[in-house]
Amino acid sequence: MADTSYLAWPFFDDGHRAYAREVERWGAEALPPLLVGAEDSLDAVYACVGRLAAAMGKAGLLRVCIPKAYGGLREQVDVRSLCLGREILGRASGLADFTLAMQGLGSVPITLFGGEDQKRAFLPRVAAGSAIAAFALSEPDAGSDVAAVSTTAVRDGKFWRLDGIKTWISNGGLASYYVVFARTGEGAGSKGLSAFIVDADTPGVDASERIEVVAPHPLATLRLAGCRVPAERLLGRTGEGFKIAMATLDAFRSTVGAAALGFARRALDEAGTRALNRRLFGRTLAEFQLTQGKVADMATSIDAAALLVYRAAWTKDVVGGRVTREASMAKLFATESAQQVIDAAVQVFGGLGVVRGTAVERLYREIRALRIYEGASEVLRLVIGSTVLGPGPSPKGSADSLKRE
């Protein structure tokens, strides 16, 4: 059983602890049957995420993604709750964590910037799991450099015509709708971007090109060719796309660290069980000082990551405003340290640790992408460094540059 003593920390209230218990119970009782056969093929992965969204919606777990006025758990979307959900689900299943994360990432832009009609049309369905959400920002030549987005949106009467290519789109080919970022030209670079809610069945939308990665999940390239989107599907105002993207990532970056934390906790649990039961030279692995030292480093890294993650989440929820520095630190440290913790767990398992299908082998594949998406570690170091050193050059189109534009 993973350590849950962190729930007593002052970052949380009784509502957070109740939600954590609810997710823990669901993960232990309802989740395992939903995962059967999930890794048999990419088709199976897509089907599994569809099942998970429906089941999590029915269980009420997705209510954490939206405000109470639209069927959500709390008055406002609460980053601490999202982090708790991602950590606990991540400990149990990468696909379950992914499902919760994407329902949030694809709906928070609507929560933060959508009109009332947009919120009522999409948010209740996200919470119910009947609408699967997606966030379409990255392009072949625009990942960390958001200002380089080249997809265009041109006004065409009562519509906007979208043309371009998005890639690395999670839930691509499975989503009911996409929040798409495109260039409308109000200014140069990041100032000329806008965001649109695009139904998946809109003519000119093609998400058939799947991308298979080491830890498979629904991932695709999204092609937009003469895609006509009603004017009322503009999210916020024209020219606000960069602001919308950065505000969303500012909230969700901490939750990526929380998912990594869940992966790391599972790795420590698995390594501890292995060390206590595997005998070598007449002793258990746990009796060797080398093993004890390795476990000590793993546990210390996990606690340090948890403090950074929940500090960032608490700051966003309670203090408010932008948490670029705190969230970047949390995501950077939690994902990098989780990679080290999981690698150490594989080492404790020895040869069995690289056998496909074992828990630590799965975690080894799952953790790698987290050091890249929603802010690669190298970019986060630039962002953190610029906040520490004060005003000066920062990556154009990065989260930190928003404060100077």
SSE diagram, text form:
Elements: H1 14-29, H2 31-34, H3 42-59, H4 79-92, H5 94-105, H6 108-113, H7 116-128, E1 133-136, E2 152-156, E3 159-170, E4 177-183, E5 193-199, E6 205-210, E7 219-230, E8 234-235, H8 241-277, E9 279-280, E10 283-284, H9 289-319, H10 324-349, H11 359-368, H12 377-389
Parallel strand pairs: 1-4
Antiparallel strand pairs: 2-3, 3-7, 4-5, 5-8, 6-7, 9-10
Radius of gyration: 21 Å
* Topology-level CATH name of the largest domain: Butyryl-CoA Dehydrogenase, subunit A, domain 3
Instruction: Kindly report how far apart the N and C termini lie.
Output: 48 Å
Query: What's the structural domain tally?
Result: 3
Overall average pLDDT: 94
Continuous helix count: 12
How many individual β-strands? 10
Task: Give the name of the CATH architecture of the largest domain.
Answer: Up-down Bundle
What is the CATH superfamily of the largest domain?
Answer: Butyryl-CoA Dehydrogenase, subunit A, domain 3
